[in-house]
Design brief:
The structure is a single chain. With 416 residues, the chain is α/β, with parallel strands linked by helices. It folds into four domains: 19-41 and 193-342, Molybdenum Cofactor Biosythetic Enzyme, Chain A; 44-65 and 161-190, Molybdopterin biosynthesis moea protein, domain 2 (Alpha-Beta Complex), CATH 3.90.105; 71-153, Molybdopterin biosynthesis moeA protein, domain 3 (Beta Complex); 347-414, Beta Barrel (Beta-clip). Helices cover 20% and strands 30% of the residues. A six-stranded mixed sheet has the order 8-5-7-6-10-9, with no helix packed on it. The chain has a six-stranded mixed sheet with strand order 17-14-18-22-21-19, with helices on both faces. A hairpin with a 2-residue loop joins strand 21 (301-305) and strand 22 (308-313). The N and C termini lie far apart (71 Å).
Length: 416
């Protein structure tokens, strides 16, 4: 006869507590909620020199046709094409440099010395390159066949008046700035200026340049987060390091809520020293979601305090990096007025140089390097492995249980 079981039956509340597990949401649902929670900031006008990588706040239309006037595409001679029979001379009657229009006019058999970008003389319908003529005193002899329209840039052939040259929410690139300048714009209206705060937590952290003692590490996450913010065009207004102490974290949180975005790195998991979640509650912040089904980066948090969007990132640097790109970056760009198409990292196709598999139950963002169209996994893939991350220029998303065979062409997210 066996020993009697002296344990008391579990109460209904105890059974419910045993069954209850923290809710882990998908990355798609997390991102959708975040983007629904942040609205673009008020727009502003800035000089063109300050507009690179900003986002247009409204559609912009051409004021001028480009080219503005018919002009020469070459250094040479403006002529009347039908008069340029082989061996027939053309009398040079003047010169038209780039700049002010000298209002010259030619008849058949006449030519004007002209330079690249110079306005075409009246009556001329072609330009002959200087290499294709023979000069004899005031006359030239054309040594090639000439057709009407040769080497002339026609007015409006590149751009018409009223044509849209910049769409609302579009990223303003260096070449866009050149087009705006060519239209005479000195300023452009762009999305709002985002101010960010960064808080890192951990007793073990000391600033770079200090002397390490056993058990300590140099703090690197604030450098990483600042660089990622600034790459987005965000101004970092505040950076603080807090020990694992509730009052210190709460005070730093209160100071940060004046910014548009707050990133807290470390202290958002379930350990006894992970105090960020409770500190946010203590200072009146709202936590909307916690724990996302993604690797690396499961202990991710999002919430709000008034107008400030709050992101809690894991303390391991690779986890912080991946969750910043997946969730913080799109939110920041939306605050800046970016179109939805601009929020994601650019995708490129690459061929795998080796097999890549995900045995886990979460999507895994594998760090690798794309070179000449081939993706190679680099370094260790643990969430602490900073060296491999430093060599990576792309991320490969591998769904749960998926195996990508060598030589498979896969879409990867470009980090550059």
């Amino acid at each position: 006869m066996g020993l009697a079981d002296t344990r008391q039956p579990a109460t209904p509340n105890e059974r419910r507590r045993k069954k209850r597990k923290p809710i882990v949401i998908t990355e798609e649902k997390a991102l959708a909620h975040i983007l629904e929670s942040v609205a673009p900031l008020p727009s502003r006008s800035v000089p063109l020199a300050q507009a690179r990588e900003q986002f247009a706040a409204r559609d912009v239309f051409a004021r001028l046709a480009l080219p503005v006037f018919d002009n020469s595409a070459m250094d040479g001679y403006a002529v009347v094409a039908k008069a340029c029979a082989a061996g027939k001379s053309q009398r040079v009657i003047g010169e038209q440099p780039a700049g002010a229009d000298r209002k010259l006019r030619i008849a058949p058999g006449e030519a004007v010395r002209i330079f690249t970008g110079a306005p075409m003389p009246a009556g001329a319908d072609a330009v002959v390159m200087q290499e294709e003529v023979r000069c004899e005193g005031p006359e030239i002899f054309v040594e090639t066949k000439v057709e009407p329209g040769d080497f002339i840039r026609r007015r409006g052939s590149d751009l018409s008046e009223g044509q849209r040259i910049l769409a609302s929410g579009e990223r303003i690139r260096p070449q866009t700035l050149a087009l705006l300048a060519a239209q005479g714009f000195a300023e452009v209206e762009v999305g709002g200026a985002v101010r960010a705060a960064i808080i890192v937590t951990g007793d073990e952290l000391i600033p770079p340049g200090g002397a390490l003692e056993t058990g300590q590490i140099f703090e690197s996450n604030s450098i990483l987060a600042r660089a990622l913010f600034e790459k987005c065009g965000v101004s970092v207004a505040q950076v603080e390091h807090c020990a694992d102490e509730a009052s210190s974290i709460e005070a730093a949180l209160r100071r940060s809520f004046a910014c548009d975005v707050l990133v807290v790195i470390g202290g958002v998991s379930v350990g006894a020293r992970d105090l960020v979640k409770s500190a946010l509650n203590s200072v009146g912040a709202q936590t909307d979601l916690w724990r996302v089904s993604v690797k690396p980066g499961k202990p991710f948090l999002f919430g709000r305090a008034g107008a400030c969007a709050i992101f809690g990132l894991p303390g391991n640097p690779v986890s912080a990096f991946v969750t910043f790109l997946l969730f913080v970056r799109p939110a920041v760009l939306q605050l800046m007025g970016a179109h939805r198409d601009e929020l994601s990292l650019p995708r490129i196709d690459a061929t795998l140089t080796e097999e890549v598999r995900n045995k886990g139950d979460r999507p895994h963002y594998v760090r690798g390097r794309v070179l000449h169209g081939k993706f190679t996994v680099v370094g260790r893939q643990e969430s602490h492995a900073l060296y491999g991350l430093s060599r990576a220029n792309a991320l490969l998303r591998v769904p749960p249980g998926e195996v990508f065979r060598r030589e498979t062409v896969v879409p990867v997210l470009s980090l550059d």
